[in-house]
Amino acid sequence: PAPLPVPGGDRNVAEPPVAPTPPAVASTTPQHRTPKPQPPPTPASPAVTPAAPQPAVDVDALIEELNVLRRRGQFADAAARLERALAQPLPDATSERLSYELGSILTWQLRDTARACKVWKQHQNAHPAGRYAAEIERAEQSLGCQ
To answer: Do the beta carbons of residue 118 and residue 101 sit within 8 Å?
Structure first.
């Protein structure tokens, strides 16, 4: 086969010289360095959403306890238990229900007019558009609350 034409004529173009590879020289430093130990990677913490604060009162357990006390006729103990629970910070709906339960026990079981009327007044101040309005009105009429 004929040589390929070179642009610009038939000049012979010499290849550029290639630099010789330097001879291997013994080094005083090791060729394979051991990397410095690195601390283990810190596991990525999953995004943790702060839990809602747990209420100080386990409402389901309290309601069950109240049911037991009522079945036993221990209404004064039930009222005392409700008063202790209501002294804790509670969600509004829970506070409303427990306050109603207390007023109901004081009204219908213990017939403690002074305490019941006080509870109903506090209840209505705390929950003016409450879901127990009709029941409370009947209780206050029955007790003669002012």
So the answer is: no
